[in-house]
Amino acid sequence: MDRERTFKDHFPSRRDPMSRCRTVLDPGLIRSGTNTFRRTNLAFFAAGFVTFITLYDVQPLLPVFSREFNLPPALGSLPLSVATAALALTMLFSGTISETWGRKRIMVLSLFCTSVLALLTAFSNGFAELLAIRLLQGMVLAGLPSVAMTYLSEEIEPRSISSAMGLYISGTAIGGMSGRIFSAAMAEATSWRLAFAVIGVACLALSGYFAQALPAASHSPRRPFGVGYLFTSLYRALQEPGLRCLYGLAFLGMGGFVTLYNYITFRLLAAPYLLSQTAVSLIFLVYLLGSLSSSVMGRLAGRLGRSATVRAGLALMAGGLLLTLAAPVPVVVAGVGIFTIGFFGVHTVASSWVGRRVPASRAQASSLYLFFYYLGSSIFGTAGGYFWTAAGWPGVAGLVGGLLLGSFVLVGRLTALPERE
Question: DSSP code of 30?
Answer without folding.
Answer: B
